Amino acid sequence: SLSADWAAEGDIKRIKTLSAGAHRSLEPVGPQYLAHARRMRHNRTFSEDDRI
Amino acid sequence: MASEGTTAPRSASKYAPEERTAIGIAFGNTNSSIAFTFDDRVEVIANEDGDRQIPTILSYIDGEEYYGTQAKSFLVRNSKNTVAYFKDLLGRDFASIDPSYCHASAHPQETNGEVTFTIIDKASSEDGEAAAPSTVSVHDIATRYLKRLVGSASDYLGRKVTSAVISVPSNFSDAQRQAIVKAADAAELEILQMITDSAAIAAAYAARIDSETAANEDATAEHKKDKIVVIADIGGTRTDATVISSSAGMATVLTAVHDYEFVGAALDKVLIDHFAKEFAKKNKGIDPRENARSLAKLRLEAEATKKALSLGSNGSFSVESLADGIDYTATINRFRYETLARPVFDGINRLVESAVTKAGLDLIDVDVVLLSGGTAHTPRIADSMRTLFNDTATIVAPSTIPAATNPSELQARGAALQANLVRDFDAEEIEQSAHPMVSTVQHTSLAVGVIAQSAAGEVFTPIIAAESAVPVRRAILLPAPKDGGDILLRFAEGSTHVNTVVKAKAAKSDDDSDDSDVDSEDEEDEEERSKGWKVQNVLAEAALRGVKKGAKIEVAISIRADMGVSFTAREVGGKAAIRGSL
């Protein structure tokens, strides 16, 4: 289903960036939130957090 | 929402994590409950009266203090020394309180700018002289009540309860929150964290789904990670409809609507009026509502009848010496009650619908309707929610899902789960974790997914839902086109829209629904509404070359905190793979 004349560098064509999000407040409750808070406070990414 | 930009009130008393015994408290205007987490099991604690829903009432007879159900029964013969519905009076100016629910008990009054009650809470002297009335602030009343509540939990657990997570309505002001913390401090109870009622309910629900998903691996499709959940918390004196976006167990409130009219007390009033009129018909026009004591008896019995009607199809109502020394006994069936109470049920429906609309959503976008609060036991409310949502959402209530958690217990359970999570933290850590700097994050405005070719043409498949908190990472499996080969994947943002197909009048209009009262709306053509996806922006195109026949492709998208997007696509068990970012 890839047309023959489609070509892009590295086979990826970047067209747009994500549209703007909105700032909202999470409810500071539950294990997933606390994991998020831990990552935020230590400035870790998901994978860094998984390793610890 | 109301908590935005505010820091959590701090409890003055502090315990080291290892000295703590922490419970969850749902502190209501009508009823309160307490719960504790043993390992991973939450138990709602019954007090010494055997009640798990403990009326928020305090009463004094001859210097003796009563609380809960015992205090509630004294509303009939000791109403002046009984304090009820006081939680909503905490932390407020006298001018701004609504004392209407307090008419049947001790009246609130103003003393030096504080809301107080005049009650006789001391024993009469030995020579029989009545004790002088004392002026007690609502703050002290709350402290005394919380002491009893915590005392019951301590007795049950066999050790002193030191700390608690307590839930409050989301529109409680800072002053109201502070007042609760102050009352708890005076009761020597450390408030670890104050959470909103809807967050507590959502947490109790999420914990349950997590455990069910863990127990049943195949359930992933049903228990998808991202959901729009409507919480209808229908209490005695207030009803809150909250729309939340639940993203992998994290809840974001999209809207909350509060109402003080379509509540449990309004349902009691329907029964009070009905039985009062019936009584008057039989007894020379004597209206038991005109006598305070008769009205108090009516109120207690009407509530009991209402509860019976939630469980069975018939409820009996009987009061000894209701008015003028006349006993009264009657029965009512559920259908009759539902007809009389219809305005209240309709009001609850409108409230839920308005919350969904206010969130900018369509009813069809809602995945789960979670009924909470004592009034949520009413089967008719679950039925009318099912009709409102046209069976596209799962209605979680005892009458629709027999295994559903008791709606009266959700709040206390959620608070107990949270208490269990944070009890090992220092006070500073808890405060920092709940800080708006941490809790306020970007949420996607549109869904992000992939457009893939299928037999039916181009199809947008969402991978990350709209209103997801970032950072977020999700992956799905897509079937590759039958012939394999080179595939073009287009990453895009999409939004939902509603497809309306007007179906000709259904052939079997004699639907087997139980409400056989003639409904003219049923005569119209049925519209079938379904949710569809519309591509808004194509973000990137990527080629995946050399895919085998009948292969599956795993497509993963992650969005970073700065709204940058990374995507990967790879053939499961194959060589073809591509990775990129925006």
From TrEMBL, chain B:
One of its GO terms (biological process) is 'de novo' cotranslational protein folding. Gene3D superfamilies: 3.30.30.30, 3.30.420.40, Actin, Chain A, domain 4 (3.90.640.10). Pfam families: HSP70 (PF00012). Residues 511-527 have a biased composition (Acidic residues). The keyword Metal-binding does not apply. Keywords: ATP-binding, Nucleotide-binding. Residues 505-532 are annotated as: Disordered. SUPFAM superfamilies: Actin-like ATPase domain. InterPro entries: ATPase_NBD, Hsp_70_fam. GO terms for molecular function: ATP binding; ATP-dependent protein folding chaperone; unfolded protein binding. GO terms for cellular component: cytosol; nucleus; protein folding chaperone complex. This is Hsp70-like protein. It comes from Ophiostoma piceae (strain UAMH 11346) (Sap stain fungus).
